[in-house]
Amino acid sequence: MSFYRPDHLSDALEIAAQGPGKIVAGGTDLYPSAKQGQRPEFYLDITAVQELRRVRFTQTGTHIGAGVTWSALVAADLPPAFDALKAAALEIGSVQIQNAGTVVGNLCNASPAADGVPALLALDAAVEILSTARGTRIVPLDRFITNVRQTDLAGDEIVTGIRIPPQPGNMRSAFEKLGSRRYLVISICMTAANIACDDQGCIEEARIAVGACSPVAQRLSTLEGRLIGQRPADIEVTPEDLAPLCPINDVRGSAAYRMDVVAEQVARAVRKAAVS
Amino acid sequence: MNKQFDHAAALSFRLNDTTVSAAPYPGQRLSDLLREGLGSRDVKVGCDAGDCGACTVLLDGDPVCACLTPAHQVQGRRVETLAGLYESDAQAQALAQRFLDHGAAQCGICTPGMIVSAVALLRRDPSPADDDVKTALGGVLCRCTGYRKIIDAVINAPGTAQSGDGTVGSSVPHLDGMPKVTGAMAYGDDIAPQGCLEILVIRSPFARASFVLGDMDSLTDQPGVAAVLTAADIPGQNAFGVIPQFIDQPVFAEGKVRFRGEAVAAIVAEPAFLAAFDPKRFPVTWTELPASSDVTAAQQEGAPELHPGRTHNVMCGGFVSRGDPQTTLARAAVTVEGRFQSGFVEHGYIEPEAGFAEMTGGRLVLHACTQAPVMDLEGLAGILAMDRSEIRVVPTAVGGGFGSKLDLTVQPYLALGALKTGRPVRMRYSRTESMQSSTKRHPSDITLRIGADAQGRICGFDFHGTFDTGAYASWGPTVANRVPVHASGPYKVADYRAASKGVHTNNPPAGAFRGFGVPQSAIAQESLFDELAEKLGMDALEFRILNALENGAPTVCGQVFDQGVGIKPCLEALRPAWAAERAAAAAFNDSNGVRRRGVGVAGGWYGCGNTSLPNPSTIKSGIRADGTIVLHQGAVDIGQGSNTVITQIFAEALGVPVGAITRVGGDTDVTPDAGKTSASRQTYVSGNAARLSGEALRAQILEKINVGIDARLTIDGPEITAEDSAGLHTLSLAGLAADEDGFVLHACESYDPPTKPLDAQGQGAPYAQFGYAAHLAVVEVDTAMGTVTPVKFVAAHDVGKAINPMLVEGQVHGGIAQGLGMALMEEYLPGRTENLHDYLIPTIGDIPPIETIIIEEPDAHGPHGAKGLGEHVLIPTAPALLNAIKAATGVRHRQVPATPARVRTEILKAQP
Question: Quick one: average pLDDT of B576-602?
Fold first, then answer.
């Protein structure tokens, strides 16, 4: 067994191709899920690859490298459309977790309760994947996470970053999280809302995503369409709007409870985004 | 080229102010490398999952959990730990002093994580606001302090500690505090030499199963394995327990297991072997069997009997009866009744059970974090079939206990491992192992009916409580006995019946946890008191004051205290806050929709020490020829402050400053038994023994010098000076003969509380003293989501005499935090919440400001009038919160924890 920590992406891809190994960035999901006596063939630590540790801005939008931690994301100069993502970043675990854990790691871990996923869905994010065998693949986030703890990532591939298309200048954004305590808490449910309003204060674009209420966080497309033209203060969330959700009963709450409160949470997130 | 690190490849990085190199194994955690490779035992490990933050270090200035950091990531970087920061960082030194000045470190196990996190904050922002502190420290869990004093220390609020001689009544800082704030304190896992043999216990994955062990030799023969331990290796009795009639738990199960997490074997091996050993490879064949998961199932006909002779799995019961409750209930003007339920609560100390053992000169020497070194020794003597004289137990610093570290955990495995291999051995439970196998608070299922007459006086009280004691007895019988004695609360209840029983299930053993069942019964009683007051149209606080127990009035056990009953002053002290906070809540509610505020009150009492059983403490002290005053302080300090309080009492009795005292801990070879740290007995019982010991030592000195009792003593080097009205007199110690301890003067005194047995009706004198408490809680409920946010507490506690007011406040804050957790978020579910991210305890962001009101109604038996406090502090908390939720929402919760889901569900049910 080995621990690889290459400086260059090309080396990392070569090592990944020898897989299956375990890709490590912040370690914040790797170690808690480690089982006594069970170890991977090798560890591939990508945190020394400097080119992955940046938030970059290009003509095609914003690129969050696979080594970017939640704290680095919060420190980055990003437009208001990213406020939900930043707010989610500040709710991830604790300062210790935010200083180590990465945005991309949150996607690759594919927890239904990953706080980063709804905000990235609301930004229409896509995942950038590289391998020596197949080059670059770009997969929309809603197709990258396929199920609970499952992703569309092959054993020889590395996620190198997240691509976020340019956002409308009037796009505002908010995040709401429900948990049983203030810090270090896995969400019962959470909502990210990206809302753009016209000059009259009516919604002209809405992107709303909910986490922890389905195996993979979901956009509420029916609601998004229905909100166009409405004033944020007047909106109501109906059961039909929540049709994409299918929460489970777990130690944090029942399915019925989640369906009940998520309607309120969505309405709050939309209103908060609109006034932000 | 690829940077590949194999076993031999070395890293280089700066650790504090030194450049170090190390060769971690692939995937090794930084916490492990620092502690075991580089000797930085100031980095504490509480969970290995980023849930507790105890292991926080600074990596290039940023706080990270060392347990989640691959060691290889620190190549070329700078790692700072508490010990290093304290050595060279002025900010850290000032902060450490402030932690002492606020009593912000109790057990101290979270302190490295707290101070390191706070240093990072203060470097960025020298004058942070409360909320900044909460966010910066939100990743570090503390189970002792309730966090408020930590916030005060970080924001540099005026300190409450007083310098000086530490006279009784003064807030001298924790006398054992300095090593806690510098990282030097050695806890259970900090004693063993690096690289020594470790022990991995093999545990049942099933709640009930039969099993057959396979070929142990195949395992024993593997390189790195020193021994495999099973029941066959136990020289004595394969059983332990804490109550002589209920010694029923095997060290290693034989043929069948009764709960998930029960031990069946253990491997003693080199660390590298165990790190790579998957327990699934252990040769054992399981056959899962149907299990009883709750008390209802366990009592049904045909349910498997866990222990032969305990019919229907009933372990034992408790009973108190006085007057004629049925008749009085029938004629009561109003009656209320209800069924109340609570689940398992995990102690959640941040230090998992850990220790170290070795054979020295044919004797077993065992170091472990424990609340009861002498009970440990007695338990081990039976298991090992060794004479007591062949065993030495040395308690380490304890990173929180709250009752669970009264029972044996790691000790038998360590002892058997050292005996069988002849080599030093160590072990630390993983967090999951600790949660699976250690004791819990008893789940309760209580039905209660209470009546009151038209004037509001209690008129009949009928209580039935069933407690899930899990697979083994532990302290279950104590809970069964204590609850009926306490279920009335601190009130005048003339007609009373309370029956309890403990029932075995295939759940983890339920044992001692701060309050021994009384917090559960208080929820039922204090909730129904609010309902009675409401039915009567009375004010809830005045209703309690009307019914409050008083001097001269009998308790439900017929015990009459003619002094020292302090519940009424506690309740009366809440009157101003009760009026102001309810007015403020009403104003808030007038201008808010879904967010509603409410105010609740509750009272509580707790009898200090064992229930109607002998409960002595012995305290030895002496003076050496060089003038060193030695106090053998065997009352284990688990963070509650006995090292400080007992020393204050002793020093006052002797007539010297606390700074003149040298403490020796509870090493069973040198220190007499000061009893277990439980039942809020140390200040009262060991405090009295310390007082007697100090007085006896003083009497000898006065006699030798021939001066009066009010002479002022100064012990300075080998000479004692006494000053009285006649002038200065001296005693030279040099000429006195020293005993085997090196003492030229010595005293050893015991104290045992005067109690009387309970008769068949539960009548008698179970405790020499009770302590009393009343809490007021203000909550804000988001009625749309079901979340409850406590916004304020006012806590009045009758402690008789506050030996150290700052430490009293610390106990109050910590107890409230635990009561809040029990009320709102904590529920241990075997197999489902076996870690600190699924099992939630309050964080720094969950505890609101707490105003502590100290009431001093002196007790005739207590040292300087002092009463116990430890358990009292969480008894009123949960019912006060539930009553506040009711006031805010109109909805009463009869099941804890009142999680957001449960609160919202009840609110919906109540809507038309």
Answer: 97
